[in-house]
Amino acid sequence: MPEVSRTRWRKAAWPLAVIAGAVLVVGLCEWQGWPFLKGPVQSRLTQQLQRPVEFGERFKLKLFGSIRLDTDALRVGAPRDLPAGSPLGGDLVNARDAHLELPYGTVIDLWRGRDEQTPRITSLRFGAVDASLKRQADGRANWTLVAPRPDAPKKPFELPQVDELVVQRGQLLYDDALTKTALEARVSTSEGEAVAQGQQRGLLVEGRGRREGQPFEIRVASSGVLPLVARDAATPVPLTLRATSGDSRFSFEGQGTDVLSFHALDGEAALSGPSLAKVGDALGLTLPTTEPFKLKGRLSKSGQRWALKQADLDVGDSRLGGEFSYDRTPKVPLLSGELVGSKLVLADLLPAFGAARPGSGNPKPPAGQMVPQREFDIPSLHRMNADVKVRLQRAELGTLFRRPLAPLQGDLRLDGGVLKLSNLVARTAGGELKGALGLDATNRKQPLWTADLRWAGIELDEWLRPRNPKLQGGKPAGEETGYVTGKLGGHAKLQAHGRSTAKMIASTDGTVQAWVRDGTISHLVVEGAGLDLAQGLGLMIVGDDPLPMHCAAVKANARNGVLVPEVAIIDTRDSTLFVSGTVSLGDERMDLKLTSRPKDISPATLRSPVHVSGTFSQPQFKIEKKPIAARLLGAAALAAVHPLAALIPLFDPGDKESAGGCQRALQRLRDADGPAGARDARAPRSTDKNLPPEREPRREAQAPEPAPIRK
After folding, report:
1. What is the dihedral of CA 310, 316, 319, 324, to 10 degrees?
2. Does 537 have pLDDT greater than 50?
3. Alpha carbons 274 and 272: distance in angstroms, whole number
4. What is the pTM of this model?
5. What is the CA radius of gyration of the chain?
């Protein structure tokens, strides 16, 4: 080799030797696990995280490709700036046989104290680990590893993304005062030798705790290793969840992507409990108080959006369903969807208004009262917004009614504490009900309730269940005509304030009016109300017959919970019946007077006003004694002269002029409802020949056809 070439080689060999030596040293250090870095790494992490970080005797660090740390012990203590006795005190993590793998990006962010990106941990493996996660009501948490800079914008805290979690034996303590949740759980995974022996690997979490003061138990199992907290790219694995809290049960069979946030779920779910409201409180949803329920359907979650499809909901005797979504992305979460069902029993909704029912937790009203006293959960109306279509095939009204509302439709919206059921349309017995209901809870101390309802064309004989078995030419049982027939119409416009049903009805203001067209009423009922002994006895013998009603109408005004009939009349060819008095909704008492004025001649009558008084739970019926006593004394005095003369005081010649009360009553209703009301045919039709033709109201306009009902 020429001397020049040797010289050049010698000059190049030294750098190559240095590089080779450096590579050899780095390789040896990588092979040995960089043991001399244990102290500096501990110090740097302790300084950066502002909490003690200690490794065990065995320490191996790998730097090629990613940061990988193996140690026989790992302790991460509490933040150093905690005051003495702070509930956030105690170690965050105590682990044995720990393996930690981090990408370089996360290590650089932690080293420089940056928190712009959510920390990512590629792998966490523990032979044994005890973790204690705590957060106070002010939001301070012991798991915040990097203190935010004072000038940094505030953002919601996110747990690190952990792609793989392997724990042979673990104990988790979670105490979050912000969400009022506490949990103690055992965590384990099947890995390594178990998988080599053919067993399926997976994760098992079993624990118990309390949420909102209610105890619960939980079990989460997967047949594949779930990451601790996943992101969009996570691969779902088969997942089973079981949770119980008192009488509430939840189960899920499907797929999931992580342990803590359940970033993505999809599977069959079942939920049952004593009341929808109690379960809703635990889930952060605003739901009504109900009787015990069972719910099942297809549950899915993507990010902050939950969806429930093919839902079947049984509440009491009601059979409901539908599809719903719950989006937590907006500042105020939004519940939307469609409520359908084959049957809604309105009695199953009574617990929502405070009625005492099994499982509802509502107290019984005080002795002698019927109206529920329990206050509504008004603050929950501000917890979320809602936009739900109601499309029910039928709604059962109760034992008094032969026909349900079929269908029942409306649009339910909750926005900023204002709840509205608008576009309400229901049909029953050939007629219909339309209108809107509302609750404005922007004033949480005095929420405003409103109702504006109109009904028309309801055939009373088809709608009401009571039958009249005394009709002449009696029909087979179940086919008899009712005591009252005709087409019922009316209008109610009311408002009230209060946080309970009792306070609400005690403050009711507004008007209620109703009428019957082309109707009849039991002759026996009319004579009974007038205490006409002769005609009543005759009807009992030969059988009842229906009397056509010239008019039947009532208009009552409500003021501070006191209902006063302005007009209350039933007019037939035989008699005219008037009702006057008051009904106190707040005191649950009534003081009404029924007065009958006959039009025909009756040879034996004790006609006298009937008083209805007492409470709603114990009404009392009394007859005015003075008119009866006067007739009986007169009859007794004349009986001394001649026995037949005793009938003279009991003789009633009738009053044909009483029919004028019908015309005046109808005129009051028309004046109250206004010209528009007359055009819409919301006043009753009269058979009075003297009524001016221009005053005769038109028939009810037909409502638009309801939307199709989905099962």
Report:
1. -30
2. no
3. 7
4. 0.73
5. 40
Q: For residue 58, what are its two tokens?
A: 């065995």
Closest to 625 measured CA to CA, from 637, 608, 611: 608
> How many CB atoms sit inside 10 A of residue 241's CB?
20
pLDDT of residue 169: 87
Report which of 404, 401, 251 is spatially closest to residue 318, judged by C-alpha positions. 404
- Secondary element (H or E) of residue 661: helix 660-679
Q: Is the dihedral of CA 517, 522, 525, 530 positive or negative?
A: positive
Q: How far apart are CA 420 and CA 410, in angstroms?
A: 10
Determine the Cα angle at 333 with ends 279 and 117, to 5°: 110
> Can you tell me the distance from the alpha carbon of 707 to that of 338, in angstroms, rounded to the nearest whole number?
12
Q: How far is CA 601 from CA 525, 538, 583, 651, in A?
A: 17, 14, 34, 8
Determine contact, residues 573/584, Cβ cutoff 8 Å.
Answer: no
Which segments of 173-283 does DSSP mark as H helices, in order?
193-196, 276-283
Query: Which CB contacts under 8 angstroms, 24+ apart, belong to 167-170?
Result: 167/125, 167/126, 167/128, 167/129, 168/126, 168/127, 168/128, 169/127, 169/128, 169/129, 170/126, 170/128, 170/129, 170/130, 170/131
DSSP-derived secondary structure for 10-43: HHHHHHHHHHHHHHHHHHHHHHHT-GGGHHHHHH
Give the chain's length.
711
Lowest model confidence (mean pLDDT) among 352-366, 367-381, 469-483, 664-678: 664-678
What is the identity of the amino acid at 541? I
With beta carbons less than 8 A apart as the criterion, state whether 368 and 337 touch: no
Provide the 8-state DSSP code for 350: G
Query: For residue 154, is pLDDT > 80?
Result: no
Q: Characterise 87 by phi-psi region: left (phi > 0), alpha (psi -120 to 50), beta (else).
A: alpha
**How high is the pLDDT of residue 56?**
92
- 324 bridge partner residues: 308, 337
- In this predicted structure, the answer to whether residue 165 has a pLDDT above a threshold of 60 is yes
- Give me the pLDDT at residue 697, please: 37
In whole angstroms, what is the distance from residue 385 CA to residue 448 CA? 18
CA distance 573 to 66: 100
What one-letter code names the amino acid at 316?
G
Per the CB < 8 A criterion, the answer to whether 407 and 438 are in contact is no
**pLDDT digits 0-9 by tens, 623-678:** 755 554 555 454 455 455 545 444 444 444 445 555 455 666 556 555 655 543 43
Residue 160's Cβ-count burial label (10 Å; 0-12, 13-18, 19+) is: middle
H/E run at residue 514: strand 509-522
33, 62 Cβ separation under 8 angstroms: yes
